[in-house]
Amino acid sequence: MTAVALAPVRRRGASRIRSVARLYFTNPMTIAVTPFIVLATIFLLNIAVWGIIVVAAPGDPDAADGFSYSGASAWIFFYMAVVAIQAMNNTFRLALGFGATRRDFYLGSTLVFLLMSVIFTAAITILGLLENATNGWGLGGHIFTPVYFGSGWAVRIPVILCLFLFFTFTGSAFGAVFVRWGRNGLLIFGGILLTIVVLIGLVIALLDAGAQFGAWLGANAPFGLALWSLVPSAVFWIAGFLILRGATPKN
Amino acid sequence: MNPITEARAIFLQIAEQIENDILSGAHPEETQVPSTNEFAAFHRINPATAAKGVNLLVDRGILYKKRGIGMFVAEGARARIMATRREDFREQYVLPCWRKPTSSASARPRSPT
Amino acid sequence: MTDDTIVQAAGLTRRFGDVLAVDDASFELQADRIYGLLGRNGAGKTTLMHLLTGQDFPSAGALEVFGHAPAENAHVLQQLCFIKESQRYPDDFRVKHVLRSAPWFFENWDADFAEQLVDDFQLPLNRRIKKVSRGQLSAVGVIVGLASRAPLTFFDEPYLGLDAVARQTFYDRLLADYAEHPRTVVLSTHLIDEVADLLEHVLVIDRGRIILDEGADELRESATTLVGARATVDAFVGARDVLHRDGIGGLTSVTVTGLTAPERREATASGIELAPVSLQQLVVHLTRSSEKEFA
């Protein structure tokens, strides 16, 4: 027989993790193109709405003030959370089908989420700089520099980055729960999280510390809060990993 | 038509098929026969099974291996095949028939009467 | 265990609640053979392959693939390729994206071979994977499974929706490529007659239990159906193990195992007709008789 021995296969961890990461960019549409379309849509809709307001109520100072409180850019964070959830579901099954371990899959996905967080933080920063330079697109608007992100780039950049990390890692954890325990698991997981939040609220109320907590929030927002968000982000990241390690792709 | 339809092990059928082709002159002596992989592909069978059939004929001296080239029909293969088949035929059919009239019970020990 | 053993399972069990999907399975797989994993739907074929490929975790028992427990072992899993009927792909994938990303995971990937197979199956590369037909989806799996040339490849019902011509193309390409690049292939199927001649070894699983683990050639000779007058056949069968019995009027047909050559001659001489038992019939008989055991 003209037998040709198959090459022994032994790839290093870094290369395996990179393969998983590349899987997300095989069709760059979902992860690299659509988010920008989301951003562009948010942008155009805002400009259109503001244009209408400016035309309808010229010179109204309340309107101009309202433009600083645009929550439009929140959509991009939600979008990234959805990408993370989908990744855990569909990309996970394919990666396992291609012989990846859960660990390599999770690390590769994390790499992608970190990368995307950095890229979109940079994108929002550039758009924010443009916004400032054009006096809010000629309308005094703040789509990419709303007050929630704080003032000054030294604060905004880490705040935006922390927000992206929080949403993607929360998404990973929810996605992992869905893959492992299905829809019911998701409900229970959501219920547990809600209970924790309510309990914290109760403790604050019982300690009669509502005013203090409010003051603490006010004093730390947004930079300190952003840094604090790294704690739940890390918890979600670790939880996502532990949950996914025991997950099996069901039919 | 695919000849692989009988209950006997496929490798035996492959060996027999090659023998038939040697008898019919399709594979003259001292010429190369197809490789086991070609046999496998043609008959749509597992290559290991085809190899088993070919090796059976090597053991019987019907085929021989030329290193690095392939399988060849041995000199005198036809005569050897015919001799073996005559012997088998006698074993299977002639002897039982020949014995039958003298001792029918020994040939059909369990058959009811 | 020999040097060629690449899979070794001992008492392998997978429990889902009260159900034993894989029940105390012990077997070995040797390198460079084509195995048939046969059994009815729901017999445990897919669960067993999920265990072997580390996609699921055993409830009990020992399992080694290439010398290690497969679950979460990157060095083991890199040697495997598992093509399953229910494989899911990312929502935004087109056919070409599957074939573009597969080589990043399979060291032995043969791009030319993959391209030739795309032609063979007339696969629309640009179509969204969610929009392709069942048969085309199966073809995607078949192409990945063949072109990846993984040392241990599993095909789980890989042909759903493929017509007879396309299935034959799959079997032909598999045989030709296996001959060139020997590797271990496990074909899980219930179209047994179609693949019977491709198999070197057969495992039959029924209700999670391995009820047969035998070379295909031995199996082919192992069972025979005897057809003839009831009295004659019954007398010949005697106390033998009967796999299957059927009858109409005074005629009866009985399937038995382990007839020797002299016994076959004896049967013929007494006027019994001998008919071969196909692998499919054999599996049907075996799974039926194991059912009786349980009943």
Automatic annotation (TrEMBL), chain A:
Protein name: ABC transporter permease
UniProt keyword annotations, A-Z: Membrane, Transmembrane, Transmembrane helix
Segments crossing the lipid bilayer: 21-54, 66-85, 105-130, 157-179, 186-205, 225-244
From TrEMBL, chain B:
Keywords: DNA-binding, Transcription, Transcription regulation
Source organism: Pseudolysinimonas kribbensis
Keyword Hydrolase attached: no
Coiled coil: none
InterPro entries linked: Tscrpt_reg_HTH_GntR, WH-like_DNA-bd_sf, WH_DNA-bd_sf
Protein name: GntR family transcriptional regulator
Highest taxon above the source species: Bacteria
Every HTH gntR-type domain range: 8-76
Presence of the UniProt keyword Plastid in the record: no
TrEMBL record, chain C:
Disulfide bond keyword on record: no
Domain of life: Bacteria
Keywords for the protein's UniProt record, in alphabetical order: ATP-binding, Nucleotide-binding, Transport
SUPFAM superfamilies in the record: P-loop containing nucleoside triphosphate hydrolases
Residues annotated as domain ABC transporter: 7-232
Entry GO MF terms: ATP binding
Nucleotide-binding recorded as keyword: yes
InterPro entries from the UniProt entry: AAA+_ATPase (IPR003593), ABC_transporter-like_ATP-bd (IPR003439), ABC_Transporter_VariousFunc (IPR051782), P-loop_NTPase (IPR027417)
Protein name: ABC transporter ATP-binding protein
Protein's organism: Pseudolysinimonas kribbensis
